[in-house]
Design brief:
Blueprint: E1 5-11, E2 21-27, E3 35-45, H1 47-54, E4 65-66, E5 70-78, E6 90-94, E7 103-107, E8 112-113, H2 120-124, H3 126-140, E9 148-151, H4 157-168, E10 172-176, H5 180-188, E11 193-195, H6 202-208, E12 214-219, H7 223-230, E13 233-241, H8 255-260, E14 263-266, H9 269-275, H10 277-292, E15 300-305, H11 309-317, E16 324-328
Parallel strand pairs: 9-10, 9-12, 10-11, 12-13, 13-14, 15-16
Antiparallel strand pairs: 1-2, 1-4, 3-5, 3-7, 3-16, 5-6, 6-8
Length: 331
């Protein structure tokens, strides 16, 4: 302990309306020999953060806990055994929870260098979206140049990353998004075609693909979007299940994949790395190279100060933001 205190966004109890998220003062710790202490500059809000507060995510941290799974900042102290990091280094910090604090101590081995092409807000929201898109489209979806990729929820963080990576891999990208403003962002990020999911998209996808359907479908929405995706997927296609932001977890009759020869593929990018550490390390190295090359650059659609952490969570929960939602700290 240093005798100093820092502010953090802490979840005191589970709540559907985020009213249990409070800004609290906590002791400022000194780093242990294998830790560094980071002055946090930005923390991204991800959908799992929203679900955790509500108690609906598979990982349930013990209460109370600090919000935030990924962020960025500057090293301000290093432990006695740390040689790879120095005071002043700009870093990306990741974890399952606990990052939305003005300063925090983290294992030195878990840090990554912040790409120079990303500012702190962009870097804070980079890892989850880029890793999700990469694991989905490359080792899980096997997207090939010349194929057609259909991206749902394409104006959100994981959607935009899939649009950008899909174009980089040589695919024709069809993006669906719920408003004209969101569809304009998808075009700006490289989508070849944009569609509204309202009223159905099956026939439009069929028309754009000469009747074949999409080869790879990237679905973080679920519900009715998943159901209709089954009806516009190509023979041998891969329907990637990313999440269920639409609320309803859909089902598919086994005869549909049989008749149409497609696969339903679950994507959990973090678990992919935890269960396959070597493959996970390769995927992480790949997305950091993509950042250096400027292939994926997450747009920040909404930014809130620490005092408005609840508003940031609600912003993502109601799907208001274009791109990433972040909380900024320390100027």
């Amino acid at each position: 302990m240093t005798g100093q205190t820092i502010r953090a966004a802490q979840v005191a109890a589970l709540s559907d309306d985020f009213s249990s998220v409070q800004i609290v003062d906590l002791p400022l710790d000194a780093p242990t020999p294998d830790e560094v202490r980071v002055t946090m500059k930005a923390v991204a809000i991800n959908y799992p953060d929203v679900l955790m507060v509500k108690g609906g995510y598979q990982f349930k941290p013990p209460l109370p806990y600090i919000v935030g799974m990924e962020g960025s900042g500057v090293v301000n102290a290093v432990g006695a055994n740390v040689t790879d990091w120095h005071v002043g280094d700009e870093v990306i910090v990741g974890g399952r929870a606990g990052l939305m604090a003005e300063q925090l101590c983290v294992p030195a081995a878990g840090l990554r260098k912040k790409p120079t092409g990303l500012n702190f807000q962009e870097a804070a929201g980079y890892t989850t979206v880029a890793l999700t898109a990469y694991v989905a489209l490359v080792p899980r979806g096997h997207l090939e140049a010349g194929e057609t990729l259909l991206v749902h929820g394409a104006a959100g963080g994981v959607g935009i990353a899939a649009v950008e990576l899909g174009k980089h891999l040589g695919a024709t990208v069809i993006a669906t998004a719920s408003s004209e403003e969101k569809r304009a962002l998808c075009l700006e990020k490289g989508a070849d075609h944009v569609l509204s999911p309202t009223g159905g998209f099956r026939e439009q996808v069929k028309d754009l693909t000469g009747g074949r359907g999409a080869d790879v479908i990237y679905d973080p929405v679920g519900g009715d979007v998943f159901d209709e995706s089954v009806r516009c997927i190509n023979w041998g296609g891969r329907l990637l299940v990313i999440g269920f932001a639409g609320g309803r977890i859909p089902t598919v009759s086994a005869n549909m994949p049989l008749i149409k020869g497609f696969s339903v593929v679950g994507v959990r990018a973090g678990e992919y790395g935890r269960r396959n550490p070597d493959k996970g390390a390769k995927a992480m190295a790949a997305i950091m190279q993509l950042a250096d090359d400027g292939v994926i650059k997450p747009p920040v659609g909404a930014s809130f100060p620490l005092e408005q952490a609840v508003d940031a969570l609600r912003n993502l929960d109601t799907r208001q933001a274009l791109g990433k939602t972040v909380v900024t700290l320390n100027g």
